[in-house]
Amino acid sequence: MYRQDTIVAISTPIGEGAIGIVRMSGEKSVEIGDKLIIFKRGGAIREMADYSMSYGQVIDPFDGQVVDEVVVSVMRAPRSYTREDVVEINCHGGIVALKRAMDLAVQLGARVAEPGEFTKRAFLNGRIDLSQAEAVIDVIRAKTEAQLRAAMQSLEGGLSSKIRNLRSQILEVYAHLEVAVDFSDEDAGALPTQDLIQKLGECQKEAGKLLADARRGKILKEGVKVGIVGRPNVGKSSLLNALLGERRAIVTSIPGTTRDVIEETANIQGVPFRLQDTAGIRDTGHEVEKIGVELSLKTMEEADVVLYVVDGSEPLTKEDLEIGRKLGSKKALVVVNKVDLPVVAELDQVRQVTGERKEIRISATKGWGLEDVERGLVELVFAGELRCLDEAIMVNARQKELLEKAQRAIVSGREALEAGMSEEFAAADVRIAYEALGEILGEKSGEDLLDRIFSEFCIGK
């Protein structure tokens, strides 16, 4: 149940900083604020203009002690984030002052907010729909500019508008189907069956486009898994460090130094690439190294893209060629490392096992060719269509499942009409699609679902 009380929380990260914010939302926010704050020039929060700020002090109303010097802002309902009266107290950024101000607000009648409760109230009060509320967490967690752009598109209603447009088309079909069912013996103006089949086909295409956008958004959200594989001591860890611009993996001249999979994320042209440095792949009797080799093979199998590294300064070995054969149909780049030394590797043999895969020559220790590797990764994953990411939408597992459910129902309804079945069957399917899309927007959202969604938020948001 939505409790229409007043909530309070520290809305900035815990730790030292220039400013920390204590936020209140609810019908008693202004009243509680007036009991807490004394302004240097007199007056009260209730007298402040909307969207204005004023300088004052937080005073303990029980003993008159000054807690902190602050700047206070007020945003009255409905023109606020929650569509309730909101008061924000900008304190100095130390935890003691912030917690003291929040605790005093609680003593005066506020309740400490639950995780995500401010955004939850924005949804419950109709300022945003559920898909926009879920986008807030994607904005907060964005680690690249492309992730942020996609999350902001959803927050500003990009996903919502596409869903509403598709629902409108589906509703039109559903209305004609219901007319055909209710007035089957009369000419009540329902569209001919062939026209309804065509319209459902168009709906199916729109749902497919949404899922394609969602798949691109998944790449942005989860990143591209890149397995860096090769035999021991070809420079896999050096390549990881070079792409990251920092020393993350231990590098020695001793083969088999890396025993476990090390994963770090690199931001390449706005896309997160999850680089996974693996143990060198070779036959070994060492029990621990054998486990590392098994993990390397598993990483290669599960990766979206593979960087297959060979040492150009040494003759090829049977391990080099065997690893190349294991690539199978994987998307991969052949990375010839250590070209700052004379190249003696028989690269024609590599090409025989790797086919027409792109070959890039680098020196990880000198930094040569790294831009070519980055460019090659982007081209391999997006096939020159990186601009399509501008249309990507951040879709979570719940939303994707509902999109797929809607698409299946649309297909089922169209097939029912094509098979000459009664309009009742198609109408039932189309209704399922309509309701599934509505669930994305939050039209049907039980308390358990909302609690699960907003529990992922930080307190204060």
TrEMBL record:
Provide the residue positions that the database annotates as binding K(+): N233, T252, I254, T257
Residues bound to GTP = 233-238, 252-258, 277-280
Q: Which protein family is named in the record? A: Belongs to the TRAFAC class TrmE-Era-EngA-EngB-Septin-like GTPase superfamily. TrmE GTPase family.
Q: GO MF annotations for this entry?
A: GTP binding; GTPase activity; identical protein binding; metal ion binding
Domain TrmE-type G positions: 223-382
Q: What is this protein called?
A: tRNA modification GTPase MnmE
Task: Please list the residues that bind (6S)-5-formyl-5,6,7,8-tetrahydrofolate.
Answer: R23, E88, R127, K461
What is the species of this protein?
Candidatus Hakubella thermalkaliphila
Where does this protein chiefly localize? cytoplasm
| Localisation per UniProt entry | Cytoplasm
Tell me the subunit arrangement: Homodimer. Heterotetramer of two MnmE and two MnmG subunits.
